């Protein structure tokens, strides 16, 4: 099956700084790469995704970059705000099933 | 419209008892997923339903776990003879179900199960 790793497991930044979370996967057949945000006690919500025919996608302060050769994709958050504090999960897809990483806890301090 | 709903929101049970967890997907969504999230862990895939096709049960951790989906809509996840390690949040998600490519999954609020 797919092996997924996220780094770092925790990330603390000051408000206004940038944050980058990296996700590596093992199955070269993966073709869809979403990132989910889960606030404390709430359900995961999709924040950005990218398909395998695209190298980068941006939506306001967040972006995702994909390196299929190296089998990793990264979440970039610029100008971080306290409300960005949450756990972020990558979930590369093989077939029709997502395999979630263990999550990265992002803490943005005012 | 209404999102994915799950019930109960919280369930406390004694070890050895059976529990049933319910998921109501978004109307019209043909794909339905169950996940488990243990404290401080990522989401673990359990089972996937797509329309009338045979479900993908590859994530079920043991034969104590089963799920069904009646009429292509509501799904029930059943855990028999619960164990303490079954304590987790059980999340359901649905998607429109294009079957040819993966679509965004919409998650329910989860059922928090505690086995004493």
Describe this structure in words.
The complex is a heterodimer of chains A (110) and B (116). Helices cover 0% and strands 55% of the residues of chain A. Chain A contains no helices and 12 strands. A 5-stranded antiparallel β-sheet of chain A has the order 1-3-8-7-6, with no helix packed on it. The radius of gyration of chain A is 13 Å and the shape is globular. In chain B, the strands form 2 sheets. In chain B, strands 2, 4, 5, 8, 9 and 10 form a 6-stranded mixed β-sheet that branches. In chain B, strands 1-3-7-6 form a 4-stranded antiparallel β-sheet, with no helix packed on it. Chain B has strands at residues 5-7, 10-13, 19-24, 31-37, 43-50, 65-69, 75-79, 88-95, 106-107, 111-115. Chain B contains no helices and 10 strands. Chain B has 116 residues and is an all-beta fold.
Summarize the structure.
The complex is a heterodimer of chains A (110) and B (116). By secondary structure, chain A is mostly beta strands.
Return residue spans of chain B where pLDDT drops below 50 for at least 5 consecutive residues.
none
- Give the N-terminus to C-terminus distance of chain B in angstroms: 37 Å
Order of helices and strands of chain A: EEEEEEEEEEEE
* Strand content bin of chain B: over 45%
N- and C-termini, Cα separation of chain A: 40 Å
What characteristics describe this protein?
heterodimer; A: 110 residues; mainly beta; five-stranded antiparallel beta sheet; five-stranded mixed beta sheet; B: 116 residues; six-stranded mixed beta sheet; globular
